[in-house]
Design brief:
By secondary structure, this protein is an all-alpha fold. The protein has one domain. 62% of the residues lie in helices and 0% in strands. The chain has four helices and no strands. α1 runs antiparallel to α2 (29-42). The radius of gyration is 12 Å and the shape is globular. The protein starts with 11 loop residues before the first helix and ends with a helix.
Length: 72
């Protein structure tokens, strides 16, 4: 089962901003992918669930989760 993942929560304004960047046509695709990863992690999905759904790797998803979760 692996180590438990730290919970990622987003305040409403941050979630709105990420969703806006995903919808905007002028957003670079790499940036939009990062936004989608963060949004999916905030929904409570695991790294292994998020990665194939978004065409990424579990390591990349874990890296973005670790960057955004406050250290304990």
């Amino acid at each position: 089962m692996g180590r438990p993942k730290a919970e990622l929560t987003l305040p409403g304004e941050e979630q709105d901003a990420l969703e806006g960047w995903v919808r905007r046509r002028s957003t670079p695709q790499a940036w939009a992918l990062r936004c989608r990863i963060v949004l999916a992690c905030a929904e409570g999905a695991s790294n292994k669930d998020v990665a194939p759904r978004l065409g990424s790797t579990p390591q990349a998803v874990g890296r973005w989760r670790a960057r955004l979760v406050p250290s304990l």
